[in-house]
Amino acid sequence: MKSISIRALTLSLVFICRTCAQVVSPSTNVTNVAIDLLDASHILHFLDILDAFGHVSSRNPDNSSQFIMTFAIAPALATSQSLVTYEIDNATAIQLTFNTSVTGAAVPSGFSERYIHSQIYKAFPDVTSVVHAHTTSVIPFAAAGIGLKAQMGVAGSLGTLTHGTPIFDFASLPTSVLPEDAPHNLLVVNEVLGDALAGTFSNDSAVVLMTGHGMAVRGTSVRNVVFRSYYTMENANVQSTTTFLGALAMGGKSPTGLSPRVAMDATTTNEGDSTLGRAWALWTAQVDTNSLYVNDLRP
Ligand SMILES: *[C@@H]1O[C@H](CO)[C@@H](O)[C@H](O)[C@H]1NC(C)=O
Ligand SMILES: *[C@@H]1O[C@H](CO)[C@@H](O)[C@H](O)[C@H]1NC(C)=O
Ligand SMILES: *[C@@H]1O[C@H](CO)[C@@H](O)[C@H](O)[C@H]1NC(C)=O
Ligand SMILES: *[C@@H]1O[C@H](CO)[C@@H](O)[C@H](O)[C@H]1NC(C)=O
Ligand SMILES: *[C@@H]1O[C@H](CO)[C@@H](O)[C@H](O)[C@H]1NC(C)=O
What we know:
The chain is of the alpha+beta class. Helix content is about 40%, strand content about 15%. A hairpin with a 3-residue loop joins strand 8 and strand 9. The radius of gyration is 22 Å and the shape is globular. The site of one 2-acetamido-2-deoxy-beta-D-glucopyranose has 3 residues, from strand 5.
């Protein structure tokens, strides 16, 4: 009787360990970040910040040398089985985050521009989340050579530099970064290009505009980087309108924007947990009304 139950126990332990070896359940922290990443992918699409293209990622909360983002898929369609854990060192896929038996080359192809994310994480240890998007209200600014400047408190993270947010211009990269024979297709597809983009950030601004392409946004959490991306788009709309109105005014007038003090204080207030939480509650409720978006990690 005793030996039978010990045998049964051993068998069940072997079974559990075999299962463990194949699929390790992600930690609570990773699961929580993954829930936000899926919501973020859906929200960024719902709010028209990105379309079929563009992406959001998070540093792995359990290991700061890794980051998590989906393989190459339209963000609106992302589910837990699209999430991949990548090396920050070289943007190589390690495994599917929620099926660790799928590793290395067996992981479906990632976004060719995942180097935007890996090199920003490498350059800025305090950055925990990144968005890259082709938002059409933002693109005219780099095209006109005009940076964005904070015009409203919720967009304070854009900063108040005289020339506005820095602009990453593919056409003016040196041949050491973009060799003559490399495709000049605006895509940031290796560590050297990613590093050049990351090096364009200014301490004053969370955003870099990309000429003919879109923007890169860095943040301190997934919710924070979605908030910054949304209000970068809204700020672009406000700054465009202000520029046109100012040009029509007697004598002409460029938008002044916020003072550095106001931008800084407003950012501290507006990017606090309470404000982010209020926005997140609305945005998750909005994506929940549309069956296109499936977050299978959230009840
Ligand atoms: C998980 O997250 C909590 C809250 O952010 C943090 O205090 C804790 O250290 C994290 N655990 C690990 C293993 O990183
Ligand atoms: C953290 O990630 C690095 C790079 O993938 C890996 O070499 C290291 O073993 C990981 N650390 C832990 C504690 O898992
Ligand atoms: C990528 O980086 C990781 C961590 O440094 C390293 O272990 C791995 O060998 C690298 N892979 C490739 C293909 O270079
Ligand atoms: C994990 O991936 C393997 C290989 O594709 C597949 O056979 C298995 O069903 C997957 N497991 C889960 C839980 O999806
Ligand atoms: C920008 O920030 C980095 C670290 O966050 C710091 O080392 C550097 O001195 C800052 N540069 C300027 C011009 O303030």
